[in-house]
C-alpha cells in the first residue's frame, strides 16, 4: 500500500535513504501471527519440541514482515526512480505503508508504482515455493518456506483487489486515468470501488462472526472498516486537490501585512493579538523586516518574563521564515504548511513582502469551493 501519511513509531534505520518505522500496533499482529504459527507447527509437527515450535513461529513472523517491507520497498524504489520523494515506510497492524509525499503526475507512473508491490510479493511467493519443494534436508526450512510462499501469494492477490487504497485500487486508478484522461474521475472510480469492496468485507465479516467464526469474522470486518476509512480519506485528498487546482497564492493571500515594532514586549504583543485576532506579525527592523512573531513563538519565553522581553528575542529570523510567492500553487503552499506544521507564510515578490497567506484562509476557500461544487452538481 502506498499513500501520504504521517510517520510515527519506532525508527529502525534507513534503506536507500528512506526511514523505516515500526508502529506500536505492529507488535500486536506480530504476537498474534507468532502464536498462530506456533500452534500450527505444533499440530503439523508434534515431534518437534515446544522450543522449536516457538523459535520457528518467531523466525517465520520476522521473515514475513521482511517480505512486507520488501513489498513496500519496491513501491518506494519505483517512486524514487520517478523522482517522487518517499517520506518513510511504516510497518503496522495491517501490514505496511509507503508514505510517498505526492501523487504521481501521470497514469503510467501511478500504474507502475502500484503494480510493483503485488509483483514483488508474487516474486517472493515463487522463491519460497522453490525452497519448499526443491531444498531437501531440513523439514523445518521446508515448513517455514511452505507457509511463506502461501502467505505472500495471498498478500499479492489481496493487494490486487481493485479496492482503493489497496495496490489494486491504484492500478485501477492508473488504468482509468489513462482511459479518461482525468485524475479526478479516475480517483472517484477507484475510491467507489474501494468503498464497495470495504463494505463487502464488513458484511461478510459480520456474517461469519454471527455464524460461529467470531474471531475470524470480527478481524475481517475490522480490516474492511479500516479500508473504508482509508478510501474516504483518499477521496477527501483528491477532492482537496481538485478544488484547489488553478488557484495561486495571489488569489488567496491578504494584502494587509500586520507589522509590529521590534521593541514591543511579548506582553504587549499578546494583548495586540487578543485585540485584533491577528495571530502572526512581521517584526519591523531599522530598514528591513527582521522576523516573524507568532503566538507559538511567544510561548518560548516564560510567562513571567513577557513584560520585560521584546518580540525580537523569540521571533523567527527572516532568513529562517518559510515564504511563498504570488505565483505558487495554493495546493503546494498548503502541503508545505502542513509538512512544516505552520499556519501562515509571508508572500514575497521581488524581495518585498506583498502579503500574508494562512492555512485558515486556504481551508476557508477550499470549503467554499467544495460547497459551490456540490450546489452545482445538485
H/E element string? EEEHHEEHHHHHHEHEEHEHEEH
Separation, N- and C-terminal Cα atoms: 34 Å
Shape: elongated
Strand content: 5-15%
**Structural class computed from helices and strand pairing:** alpha/beta
The main pleated sheet reads as: 5 strands, mixed
How many structural domains does the protein architecture include?
2
- In the sheet with the most strands, the strands line up as 1-5-4-3-2
Count of individual beta strands? 11
Radius of gyration: 26 Å
Average pLDDT figure: 87
Low-confidence runs of at least 5 consecutive residues: 374-378
* Helix content, binned percent: 55-70%
How many helices? 12
Fold blueprint:
Layout (H helix, E strand, L loop, with lengths): L1 E2 L6 E6 L2 E5 L3 H19 L5 H32 L4 E7 L2 E6 L6 H28 L4 H22 L6 H14 L2 H28 L3 H31 L4 H4 L6 E3 L4 H11 L3 E5 L4 E6 H4 L17 E2 L12 H11 L3 E6 L2 E7 H19 L1
Parallel strand pairs: 1-5, 3-4, 6-7
Antiparallel strand pairs: 2-3, 4-5, 7-8, 8-9, 10-11
